[in-house]
Design a protein that fits this description.
coiled coil; 9 strands; membrane; nucleotide-binding; binds guanosine-5'-triphosphate; 418 residues; alpha/beta; nine-stranded mixed β-sheet; binds magnesium ion; GTP binding
């Protein structure tokens, strides 16, 4: 039943836009690779038989083969990446756990996360972690062991630990979302390194704030630097620990509108990364701890409100789900654009280059043939036969390439439009 529900949720998820686009562009590149291989064989044959294609040209063509293979490799690894930042103990790790519906990352009071932790899906069904600079797989059975493994090592705060978690345990991981957890922005002096090493290819950033206090200078400064280095980053703001507001219901509305106004001003007037309308859709009031508890109850077959920590659970729970939906729409659109647009235009330029190269060869063969026609009496019948055969092969190949280029261009732009 759970499998089935996850499948249905999956089908409706906006993340499917990315998943389908990725499949499509991988298929298109698979075809391009086939064409490139066929054409290479043809060019190599021409090179050895007739000296129509010289060495430089043959090498140039080989470079297309490598280019296409390199793009294919990147494409297969492409994913959607979301990075979480905020002050120590605001609940970054708890938000990720709530989204993953399982307590994967260590969370707790005080300074818990001491280096970058990336959670990504693994096909093999086993959980393990890998430290930066090593490809040793360290098996992880449970959260305690993971926390110990992360604490024991003297890891630098900017280093990265990759946690591979079985895809089938979470639909977000199955759909190729990769989560990056960070230490608090207040504990590091190397924020620039952080951005250069971990943020440049992030599709979405989530600023996790503590709703009990207000946004700090360190948090603001970090995002100022991010938006200088990246053009218009997608930033969501979560006012976490909103369950605390239930203790002071008389101030709840005024605090909420004060936070909302500050967050919107920050995105629009300070960072200038969103307009008013978009910014209003990027600010949420949630409780990560409560959401995770609710989801753990749900997984046991209990009603989610058993996980409630305070009054107003339902509203906070809906708001968390609303955040997730908007986040999914945003990340999948952004990743399709930034990741696949580039590959599509590279694919177009490679197929265009190949086309003009083959046009050139075709022209040369025509000249070569006319020349030979003039010296017909000197040629044996066998050579003529070979030439005609060659002409025919070239013509067929040219047609094939023409068709291929058109087909690929059509597919690429159709995929892009979609
Ligand atoms: P560092 O890794 O140290 O930077 O902290 P973090 O931002 O990852 O915070 P973490 O998720 O470890 O949470 C810190 C503490 O706050 C934990 O004890 C959580 O259980 C608690 N916590 C997180 N979110 C909430 C929430 O929404 N409400 C309440 N009441 N507690 C929360
Ligand atoms: Mg943490």
């Amino acid at each position: 039943l759970t499998e089935n529900r996850m499948y249905q949720q999956n089908e409706k998820s906006p993340l499917q836009v990315f998943v389908r686009a990725k499949k499509k562009i991988n298929d298109i590149y698979g075809e391009i690779e086939e064409y490139v291989h066929e054409t290479t064989q043809f060019i190599n044959a021409l090179h050895s038989d007739a000296e129509i294609v010289d060495k430089a040209e043959r090498e140039l063509f080989e470079s297309y083969v490598y280019k296409v293979a390199a793009i294919r490799e990147v494409l297969q690894r492409d994913h959607m990446k979301v990075a979480f930042f905020g002050r120590t103990s605001n609940g970054k790790s708890s938000v990720i756990n709530a989204m993953l519906r399982e307590k994967i990352l260590p969370s707790g009071i005080g300074h818990t996360t001491n280096c970058f932790c990336q959670v990504e899906g693994n096909d093999g069904g086993e959980a393990y972690l890998m430290k930066e600079g090593s490809d040793e797989k360290l098996n992880v059975v449970n959260i305690k062991q993971l926390a110990n493994a992360l604490c024991q090592e003297k890891l630098s705060e900017s280093s990265l630990v990759r946690i591979f978690w079985p895809r089938e345990r979470c639909s977000l991981l199955r759909d190729d979302v990769v989560f990056v957890d960070s230490p608090g922005v207040d504990v590091s002096a190397n924020l620039d390194d952080w951005i250069d090493n971990h943020c440049l290819n992030a599709d979405v950033f989530v600023l996790v704030l503590n709703a009990e206090s207000t946004m700090t200078r360190a948090e603001k400064q970090f995002f100022h630097t991010v938006s200088q280095k990246l053009s218009k980053p997608n930033i969501f703001i979560l006012n976490n620990r909103w369950d605390a507001s239930a203790n002071e219901p008389e101030f709840q509305e005024s605090v909420k509108s004060q936070h909302t106004e500050r967050c919107i001003d920050f995105l629009t007037k300070e960072l200038k990364v969103s307009n008013e309308k978009e910014a209003a859709e990027r600010v949420f009031f949630v409780s990560a701890r409560e959401t995770l508890q609710a989801r753990l109850e749900e997984a046991k077959g209990n009603p989610p409100h058993l996980g409630a920590i305070a009054d107003g659970f339902q509203i906070r729970y809906f708001e968390f789900q609303d955040f997730e939906r908007k986040f999914e729409e945003c990340i999948s659109q952004s990743a399709v654009k930034t990741k696949f647009q580039q590959h599509s235009s590279r694919g177009k330029s490679v197929s265009g280059d190949m086309r003009s190269m083959l046009d050139n060869i075709y022209e040369r063969i025509t000249i070569f043939r006319n020349l030979k026609q003039d010296q017909k009496n000197l040629l044996t019948e066998r050579i003529q036969g070979t030439e005609t055969q060659m002409m025919q092969v070239t013509r067929e190949m040219k047609m094939k390439i023409h068709n291929m280029v058109e087909e690929v261009e059509e597919k690429v732009s159709k995929a892009l439009n979609e």
